[in-house]
Amino acid sequence: DGGITQSPKYLFRKEGQNVTLSCEQNLNHDAMYWYRQDPGQGLRLIYYSQIVNDFQKGDIAEGYSVSREKKESFPLTVTSAQKNPTAFYLCASSISGTGGVYGYTFGSGTRLTVV
Amino acid sequence: AQRVTQPEKLLSVFKGAPVELKCNYSYSGSPELFWYVQYSRQRLQLLLRHISRESIKGFTADLNKGETSFHLKKPFAQEEDSAMYYCALRGTGNQFYFGTGTSLTVIP
């Protein structure tokens, strides 16, 4: 069953702690993305990666970090420097170099709450 | 600047009525536009893309370069169309820019 899997579904974090959100895909997609979804603000891009061992900052990268050591995996770390981390986080993947014809495949999301 | 604007946060229509979800974009190149939909308790998924000129679930969207718009239309709304709809623009580097979304409610 091909797809993109995010875990955990719900995550609670204490202030001052780093936390890592998992994103795994078995679609053989080259590109992977992290978005943050807030009410009334739509989806905002945090980081994206077009190829293994390479990634670029999106519009709201401050307070976040990523790695892309494997094609299948693109974990996102929310650091203590992120001032407002409570949000819904979406991971997505796409086939690079296709002209965007197929768009994104999205994960089911992780809801992070800072307590 | 690359930007997608969806002016309506909420839209309610009666079942059987026509529906139009507005989307305007800003992009200097040749745009590639998409509509994504998120039904209740489901993941965000691709609804349609302008390059395919397709009709999915009765929805169509025409790219109007003169008005820089990509409005989503359906002649007769159904209850199962109630969902959150996002317009998206594929920008440079295969990066997508999303609008803020429109929540559509179809009233029985």
Can you lay out the helices and strands and say which pair or pack?
The complex is a heterodimer of chains A (115) and B (108).
Chain A: E1 4-7, E2 10-13, E3 19-25, E4 31-38, E5 42-51, E6 54-57, E7 64-66, E8 76-78, E9 87-94, E10 105-106, E11 110-114
Parallel strand pairs in A: 2-11
Antiparallel strand pairs in A: 1-3, 3-8, 4-5, 4-9, 5-6, 7-8, 9-10, 9-11
Chain B: E1 3-5, E2 10-14, E3 19-21, E4 24-26, E5 32-38, E6 45-49, E7 60-61, E8 72-74, E9 83-90, E10 96-98, E11 102-107
Parallel strand pairs in B: 2-11
Antiparallel strand pairs in B: 1-4, 3-8, 5-6, 5-9, 7-8, 9-10, 9-11
Task: Spell the H/E element sequence of chain A.
Answer: EEEEEEEEEEE
Q: Could you list the spans of chain B in which at least 5 consecutive residues all have pLDDT below 50?
A: none
Gyration radius of chain A, rounded:
13 Å
Shape of chain B: globular
- What can be said about the biggest beta sheet of chain A? 7 strands, mixed
Radius of gyration of chain B: 13 Å
Instruction: Look at the helices and sheets of chain B and give the structural class.
Output: mainly beta
Oligomer state of the chains in this structure: heterodimer
Helical segment count of chain A: 0
**Mean pLDDT over all positions of chain B:** 91
Q: Roughly what percent helix of chain B?
A: under 10%
Which outline of chain A best applies? globular
* C-alpha end-to-end distance of chain A: 35 Å
Beta-strand residue fraction of chain A: over 45%
Report how far the terminal alpha carbons of chain B are from each other: 40 Å
SSE string of chain B, helix = H, strand = E? EEEEEEEEEEE
Mean pLDDT of chain A: 89
* Proportion of residues in β-strands of chain B: 35-45%
Would you mind describing this structure in some detail?
The complex is a heterodimer of chains A (115) and B (108). Chain A is globular, with a radius of gyration of 13 Å. The model of chain A has no long low-confidence stretch (mean pLDDT 89). Chain A has 115 residues and is an all-beta fold. In chain A, strands 2, 4, 5, 6, 9, 10 and 11 form a seven-stranded mixed sheet that branches. In chain A, strands 1-3-8-7 form a four-stranded antiparallel sheet, with no helix packed on it. In chain A, strand 4 and strand 5 form a beta hairpin. Helices cover 0% and strands 50% of the residues of chain A. Chain B is an all-beta fold and 108 residues long. Chain B has strands at 3-5, 10-14, 19-21, 24-26, 32-38, 45-49, 60-61, 72-74, 83-90, 96-98, 102-107. In chain B, a hairpin with a 5-residue loop joins strand 9 and strand 10 (96-98). Chain B is globular. Classes of the chains: A mainly beta (115), B mainly beta (108). The A-B interface holds A 31, 33, 35, 40-45, 48, 50, 56, 58, 90, 94, 96-97, 99-109 and B 6, 9, 32, 34, 36, 43-46, 49, 51-52, 86, 88, 90, 93-101.
